[in-house]
Amino acid sequence: MIEHQCEAGRVAAADVAGFATALRTLGSGIEPAAELVDQIRRLEELKSAAAAAQARVTAVFAATQRSAQRAAGVPATEVGKGVAAQVALARRDSPHRDGQHLGLAVALTGELPPGR
């Protein structure tokens, strides 16, 4: 499981990787039906929380990359280029598809009210 949290509730990438490793053992033993149903529900909640976190992290990454590009003097028409490709590499996805993911992440985090 997650061994520690970084400052003020922030979780390091290594902790996320450790948690993913721990999740691989779920479903490998015999559990009471009620426990299995609870695990299914909790995993669905976790999946939703992970998707929301991924959208937030993606939007922040895109904003910081664009800011760094502007600071480096990249022409305005070129600012933002390559960001989707970097996100695609991290997600192990195609740059085209991640351009869509990037746009959605920016829209969800910038245009919608925060979730509960």
State the gist of this model.
With 116 residues, this protein is mainly alpha-helical. The protein has a domain at 49-111.
Topology:
Elements: H1 13-23, H2 33-71, H3 83-91, H4 95-111
List its salient traits:
116 residues, mainly alpha
Question: Can you put this structure into words, describing what you see?
Answer:
The chain has a domain at 49-111. It is elongated and about 60 Å long. By secondary structure, the chain is mostly helical. It contains four helices and no strands. It has helices spanning 13-23, 33-71, 83-91, 95-111.
What is the typical, i.e. mean, pLDDT? 83
Tally the helices.
4
| Share of residues in helices | 55-70%
Largest sheet: none
Would you count the extended β strands for me? 0
The proportion of residues in beta strands is: under 5%
Distance between the termini: 24 Å
